[in-house]
């Protein structure tokens, strides 16, 4: 089935129809069902713990010297950053305890969203998008297809090679200061028409034959 909706000006990029037996997920809910062995990546508390980021579920006590802390849902397939917020003090934390949420250290650094083509746990292709923050945890704009620090690429590839050794497909990984904050078993749906003409044919080959042509 064709995986995308597109604007008329982008039609030339969407001519590579996958075989009928291939399914290319473009949403987290679809990817969650398609990849049961890897759906654990949607647990943001697990992602934090694997990297040694100070974190815990609401109801546990953050260290006093960690404040301000960051709070967000542990799982949220419909909108990964929904209801995310900073918590300034232990009293604020006690008054904002929310079932299903987690706290973590506030991370510092640039925010990247990276699409990655993965074949058997190896990152074959990466494209970085840098987010420029706006007010109240929003984004002013994104810069697409930008270069990224080598240590960010290394952090991403190390995570994939360590924890997703048998995965084949697209990933979208969001990072702040070289720490991974979210992992999605799909690519970012906003940018395919900016990735060049070979992206769609490579995407089809990835999901139908387990190889990347880009």
Automatic annotation (TrEMBL):
This is Uncharacterized protein.
